[in-house]
Amino acid sequence: MILEHELFPHEFKFSSKKPIVNLQTPKRIVMLMQQHTGALAQPTVKAGDTVIKGQVIGDSPGYVFAPIHSSISGKVKSISPWLHPILGREIESIIIEADGSADEIRLKPLNYPITPDEIRQRARDAGLVGQGGAAFPTHVKLNPTKPIEYAIINGAECEPYLTVDHRQMLENPKKLISGLRLIMSAVGAKKGLIAIEDNKKDAITLLKVLVREFPDIRVFVLPSKYPQGAEKVMIKTIIGKEVPRGGLPQDVGVVVINVSTAISLAEAVFEGKILTEKVITISGDAISEPANVKVHLGTIVKDVIENTVEFANGYSRFIMGGPMTGFSQATLDVPIIKGTSGLLFLRKTRIQETAECIRCGRCIQNCPLRLMPAYITSSTKLGEYSRAEFYGASDCFECGRCSYVCPANIPLVHYVKVAKTELFKMKKTGSKS
Ligand code: SF4
Ligand code: SF4
To answer: 116-271 maps to which CATH number?
Structure first.
């Protein structure tokens, strides 16, 4: 049962009026071999090789996988471990130094009629994954095993600070609609929706005008509340159906795709463009000029902010992603990956001393999925992961609401994530807790 509680973390959408700016080609990139949900990529190049922008440098025969391409032209300096900003450990990475060449590999542009298989193949060849954070390979999402009625573009962008989707909808609306039409065709959906929170009135007005010529597409205005952008919450709001526990949106006839992913799909199909760059928001109360920038994948954060960010008095916390679902980082020496949506630099934080649980029940009342974060946490602390599963650990989509409302400042999502990781390991090994 998805609850309708209302939570409005302060929005802080400081960069919503800042047009997307293209950043310069970096001198060096670090391409992590894991940038998506699914199989790890194996390097297809070696130290000393010359590569061209758009060239495949990491591949795998796995189905749930998206190839890794070089985002610059240059020479492979080394293949060595580098810190992953989400996994929090070093993984195999290809380090490339730019040679100044403007060469770029593109795929052959396609024209209608285009078959669903061609769309899926193009999504895979272009290395597309969900760019909102989960980084699920797009070609897999476009191959549902159940009948689909609705293809929904997720333009909610309910996370505070982030404005990538908002700017993309304003600056690339026609590509977004083209991408949605491709998605509808690939999954066989008769209806297309662009779901936008009501705090983005300019994007709503623009897209409502542009979809007039497509009778099967409409703009759906969502109330601005957190976590409206979580797939399961959004589906309940739009079609009134709940995705079953442990299920997927396709179980209720829906496929949901992120705004930037749909735009990248249109670019891959009609322009042959490979995913080598992405739009991110740089924001937070520690910087003077928030911005939306298009950055080469693999650029080290330190290099991204070198010429773009000014700190008034330093910062106390750096998060990759939004403040509710993002990942705090201990270093700027981490690369931009396909799922990176923002770089957030915060001066003041909500971090306070953690206290004991006072059993107020606010975390449970505020969980949109009616899970039991307090009980998942106590079970996880005891190493009783099967009990954590009983209280719903595996269903959690890590929206962060429970942690946000907890008066004892208990990092509940952290414990849910630990439980999920341990449950995944247990499933793999067949062990029990
Ligand atoms: S993060 Fe917390 S509130 Fe959000 S779904 Fe998970 S348990 Fe529920
Ligand atoms: S909100 Fe925090 S203090 Fe209240 S029950 Fe949940 S974990 Fe305990």
So the answer is: 3.40.50.11540
